[in-house]
Write a structure and sequence with these properties.
582 residues; alpha/beta; TIM Barrel; Archaeosine Trna-guanine Transglycosylase, Chain: A, domain 4; 3 domains; 6-stranded mixed β-sheet; 5-stranded mixed β-sheet; 18 helices; 30 strands; 32% helix
Length: 582
């Protein structure tokens, strides 16, 4: 038995589980099947046939591929009771193992069954806490939550980290005359027309079995859609779009973000594709990670004395937009332009230094730019700027933001240059005359500023090790395609498509034991698989530059395809895509 993840997004993944020679897609649905209610023809796994029942606490049965017998009890019972029940449940494990947030440590199951799933799902707070605690016990193993999935909530269950679902809730709802769409449930008797073209809707739903089969079709299509969103790296975007369909589901995503950032952040890839931002994106883990790195890792170029605050643009990267091309012409006409540091103010990212405009997600988010801001956005930007300015000191601050953002409280003196609109003739004249103050400062060369920009970018990517890594190096090339050299050997180059520096083998040597992976004694070439990983630096996230060592010998440099935890825990799947090897 093994599970191999093929694609990862948010807190979940797609892949294949191999059980007794059969490959099962993940995520997947266990479709209930009985003589009275046969599973749909497209069912890959049948609950009741392929997966049997191990009986109950009073009448346990011996089986190898079945839900184990279990003692059923309320989630609200004291933790001591959970531990005793868990101890009994663990004596009847097979491929499946019951797991409880309040029980003991999980053992050696291949698929874990979430205890009390229906009860905990009824309370968003309990559900979120339960999922995070259970994942802390079973790590990246497969998790099945029985009796709760519908087409409406399926994406949220997958987002939280559940791999397997079943059709039991669909059967119960169908018995009550509920007609499902992917975004809601409706009483069948209240529908004048069916908003669906499945065979059962086309011929007309006349009985329970027709309604059930329609709902099965909707469930199947929703699962396909979710799998595609995971592969495309857009599951969070899809979940945010559905969050307003139900206060219950909205609470789940808000609680995950508010209380379990660490759980999510280490699972979120470091790079991604374009997405549409919403108010929920303010607390999206990869957005929050970007803000935290800007505020805690990143440092401005040392020679930058003038902070210029600029508005964002619809087009990304910002410098390719019409407005930023205009700003660039004005800055270029300044005789000491490299004393000026451009910082873009935006939501949901807050602060984007110009050097980071190609970095995910600053080059990848789309947001409505109509000049109106929510209070939450303004408060987030204001707090971020205040913290940023405590860490990064400037002699002069020029604010070229539109009126809606001109009243930001930064506890320091500011020159405001925007009248009506940032690209109005009056605003541009004010900006040009205000930037002339740069001539009062020491002249900064392009070479010096390029080196400092590179250091700032490396600090964002790698943290403080960047100072040691860049020491004694030269930087060549035009922004953003910087290349780093040490003693005539290229160490790294910035890849705009990834928004990160990519290391060469020599760069891996200079980086040393940082973002390291300890592997067994073999010569890696195309890929390093998790089965060959012994240990890994806990800082590694999916998409990070990674350096593979056997003992103290550097063997390869590449890109992480798993985070550090999963590399060490998993026994199948690609851990590192190797770029250079010895």
């Amino acid at each position: 038995m093994k599970f191999e993840a093929i694609a990862r997004d948010c807190n979940t993944r797609t892949g294949y589980a191999e059980i007794e020679g059969k490959k099962i897609k993940v995520p997947n649905i266990f479709w209930y099947s009985s003589p009275r209610l046969p599973a749909p023809s497209f069912a890959e796994i049948k609950l009741g046939e392929d997966i049997g029942s191990g009986g109950s606490f009073f009448y346990p049965k011996e089986c190898t591929f079945c839900i184990p017998p279990r003692l059923i009890y309320p989630y609200a019972f004291p933790e001591e009771f959970h531990k005793k029940a868990f101890s009994w449940n663990n004596t009847h494990t097979n491929i499946f193992e019951i797991v409880s947030a309040k029980g003991g440590e999980a053992k050696n199951g291949f698929i874990f069954v979430l205890a009390n799933s229906r009860e905990v799902f009824s309370n968003p707070k309990n559900f979120v806490e339960c999922i995070v605690k259970v994942r802390g016990k079973i790590g990246y193993k497969l998790l099945y939550a029985p009796g709760i999935a519908t087409p409406v909530n399926l994406a949220f269950l997958a987002y939280c980290g559940i791999d397997f679902f079943d059709s039991l809730q669909i059967i119960l709802k169908s018995r009550k005359g509920i007609y499902f769409t992917s975004d809601g449930e409706h009483l069948i008797e209240e529908l004048d027309e069916y908003p669906c073209s499945c065979p059962f809707c086309m011929k007309g739903i006349g009985k329970f079995e027709d309604l059930l089969m329609h709902n099965y079709e909707v469930m199947k299509n929703e699962l396909i859609k979710i799998s595609q969103y995971i592969k495309q790296g857009r599951l969070r975007e899809y979940v945010e779009g559905k969050a307003n369909l139900s206060p219950h589901l909205a609470s789940i995503i808000r609680l995950m973000d508010a209380r379990h950032y660490e759980y999510q952040e280490k699972r979120y890839p470091l790079t991604g594709k374009k997405f549409v931002s919403s108010l929920y994106s303010l607390s999206r883990p990869d957005i929050k990670r970007f803000r935290e790195r800007v505020l805690n890792r990143y440092k401005k170029p040392d020679s930058a004395k003038i902070l210029l605050l600029l508005p964002c643009s619809a087009k990304k990267p910002y410098s390719l937009s019409k407005s930023h091309k205009i700003f660039n012409r004005i800055i270029s006409n300044c005789k000491n332009r490299y004393a000026i540091h451009e910082v873009i103010i935006t939501s949901p990212l807050a602060i984007v230094p110009r050097e980071l405009e190609y970095t995910y997600p600053s080059a990848h988010y789309d947001i409505s730019t109509i000049g109106q801001w929510y209070r939450d956005e303004i408060e987030m930007i204001e707090k971020s700027l205040q913290k940023y300015l405590r860490r990064n000191k400037y002699e002069v601050i020029i604010n070229h933001l539109p009126e809606e953002l001109s009243s930001l409280s930064l506890n320091t003196e500011i020159i405001n240059t925007c009248s009506n609109h940032p690209t109005s003739e009056e605003s541009l004249k004010k900006l040009s005359s205000s930037l002339a103050i740069a001539e009062d400062f020491e002249k900064i060369s392009h070479t010096k500023r390029r080196y400092e920009n590179t250091l700032s970018m490396l600090l964002f990517q790698f943290g403080n090790i960047a100072n040691k890594f860049l020491r004694g190096c030269k930087v060549k090339g035009k922004f953003p395609e910087y290349k780093i050299y040490y003693e005539e050997k290229q160490l790294a180059s910035f890849v705009a498509k990834r928004g990160l520096f990519s290391l060469t083998f020599a760069g891996g040597k200079k980086m040393g034991k940082n973002y390291w992976v300890e592997i067994e004694d073999f010569k890696p070439k195309g890929s390093i698989f998790s089965v060959g990983v012994i240990n890994a630096d806990e800082r590694i996230r999916i998409g990070d530059e990674t350096i593979a060592f056997y003992e103290d010998e550097l063997r390869a440099v590449g890109v992480a395809k798993m985070n550090a935890e999963e590399m060490v825990e998993s026994d199948a799947g690609e851990a590192i895509k190797v770029r250079h090897y010895k």
